[in-house]
User: Fold Glycerophosphodiester phosphodiesterase family protein from Rhodococcus sovatensis.
Amino acid sequence: MSGDRRGPFVVAHRGASEEKKEHTLAAYDLALREGADGLECDVRLTRDGHIVCVHDRRVDRTSTGTGIVSELDYETLKGFDYGDGAEPADLLTLADLISLVLDWNSKPTKLFIETKHPVRYGSLIESKVLAELHRFGIAQPASADHSRAVIMSFAPTAVWRVRRSAPMLPTVLLGDTSHYLGGGAATTVGATAVGPSIKSLREHPSIVDRAAASGRATYCWTVDEKADVELCRELGVGWIATNNPGRTKAWLE
Ligand code: G3P
Ligand code: CA
Assistant:
């Protein structure tokens, strides 16, 4: 999962979520058409074990419904509208998104899947996600660089579980700088890449070189300012997640 010397690859954070409602087919479709190199999504389990793309613990902010994702069945969640009022949208599943990425023939866009709350779900969410990747034939890539899927988490345990079950899949350990400054958890759990926020990167620009020294790429989120895009390019960040992939691609040209 290496970067590119010409500049970071661009990942659409929750789709092209500045222009379309987050985690909707419309947001991801637009991101692909804008030339995104990767698509980021957050996944949660419904009460009956379906993997859905929802960021928050509850659906209240992003849908017409109310309630906690893990306490509602798929059919109930599917009954809510996830659009922006003008444009209705269906609940998106991980399977929908994998299909979209694999059907996109312009380039081998990667899917960055962030598992939410692995502590609450135990190992269930990682094993369900891996089963889905197996079902689509993308759980055992020839190399991390060629993988169509990347698994990410703020929880070192989650990354460790994925490394143990699917060693060829690239992983990103997100979050706290203590994970990767001073040889922390990213090394212990064998994450392929470190994932600082842009705020952490501004405060600790040496993260990128330190990660590279141990063979790791850097994935930085959420990079929406031009100056930050430039900073990432100068530092050699491999991947940047942005809410506006079209504008970010244009800045990098
Ligand atoms: O891409 C990582 C980033 O999405 C982590 O933060 O809250 O947007 O999931 P959050
Ligand atoms: Ca996320």
Remarks:
- The beta strands are 9-13, 38-45, 51-53, 110-115, 149-153, 171-174, 193-195, 217-220, 239-242.
